[in-house]
Amino acid sequence: MTDNKLLEWGPVSLIRRNHGLEHATLNLLAKELPSRAFAGHSDQKGFWIIGDVSTDKLLETVQEALQRMNSGEKSLALHANCGTNYVTAGVITGTLAWLATLVGGNTFKKKLDRWPLLMMIATGSLVAAQPLGPKVQAKISTSGEPGNLKVRQIVRYERQGPTLHRILTADVAPEPVITTESLES
C-alpha cells in the first residue's frame, strides 16, 4: 500500500479505502447514468451516495466497483471532483496569497497597489495546484486497493430532494486456506 504507517493505521486505512470505493462507485454511476448528478462522503464505517438511483442498482454498482478495484483498476479510486483537489488548490493559493500580503506597506493604498500581484499569484497557484490535487488524492486521501473491504449493508433514506444511501462496509479477514500439508505438520 504505502510506506507511511499513519496511512496504514486501521481507522485511517478504512477511511481511505472507503473513499476510494466511493469514488469508484461514483465513476461507474456517472458512466451508466450520465444525466444524473451524484455526490458522496466517506468515513470509517462506509460512505454515503447522494443522488437518485435505485438501491438495487447502487448495490450492483458498488459490487462491480469493488471487484474491478480488486482486479487492479486502482485508478477508479480517483475522482475529478474530489474535495481533496479543491482543498489542495485552496491551501496552496491561500498560503501564497497570504505570504504576498506580508510584504509592503500597511496603508490601504499600498495594499490596493498589490492587488494585481495577488491576483497573479492566486491564478498561478490555482494552475499549479491542478496536477497536485489528484496526486494528493492518490497518495493520501484515497486508496485504490480495497483489500478485504466488503459491503455489509445499504440503507436507503427517502427525503425531500435527492435520495441518500448509506453504504456500510467492513474489513473482513479472508478465510484461512487449509491444505493437507498444514494438517500433517
What structural category characterises the helix and strand content? alpha+beta
Arrangement of strands in the largest sheet: 1-2-4-3
**Can you give the helix content as a percent range?**
40-55%
Number of strands: 4
Ends: how far apart?
32 Å
Cα-based radius of gyration, to the nearest Å: 22 Å
CATH superfamily (homologous) name of the largest domain:
Threonyl-trna Synthetase, Chain A, domain 2
The CATH topology of the largest domain comes to Threonyl-tRNA Synthetase, Chain A, domain 2
Report on the biggest sheet. 4 strands, antiparallel
CATH architecture of the largest domain: 2-Layer Sandwich
Unreliable segments of 5+ consecutive residues:
none
What average pLDDT do the residues reach?
89
CATH class of the largest domain: Alpha Beta
- Report the sheet-strand fraction: 5-15%
N-to-C series of helices and strands: HHEEHHHHHEEH
How many DSSP H or I helices?
8
List descriptors.
15% strand, 4 strands, 4-stranded antiparallel sheet, elongated, 8 helices, alpha+beta
Characterise this structure:
There is one protein chain. The chain has 185 residues and is α+β, with helices and mostly antiparallel strands. The chain folds into two domains: 5-81 and 142-170, Threonyl-trna Synthetase, Chain A, domain 2 (Threonyl-tRNA Synthetase, Chain A, domain 2), CATH 3.30.980; 83-137, no CATH class. Helices cover 53% and strands 15% of the residues. The protein is built from eight helices and four strands. The chain has helices at residues 5-8, 10-32, 55-70, 83-101, 108-113, 115-129, 132-141, 180-184; strands at 39-43, 46-50, 149-157, 164-171. The chain has a four-stranded antiparallel β-sheet, with helices on one face. Helix 2 crosses helix 3, helix 4 packs antiparallel against helix 6 (115-129) and helix 4 (83-101) crosses helix 7 (132-141). The longest helix is centred in the first third of the chain and has 23 residues, at 10-32.
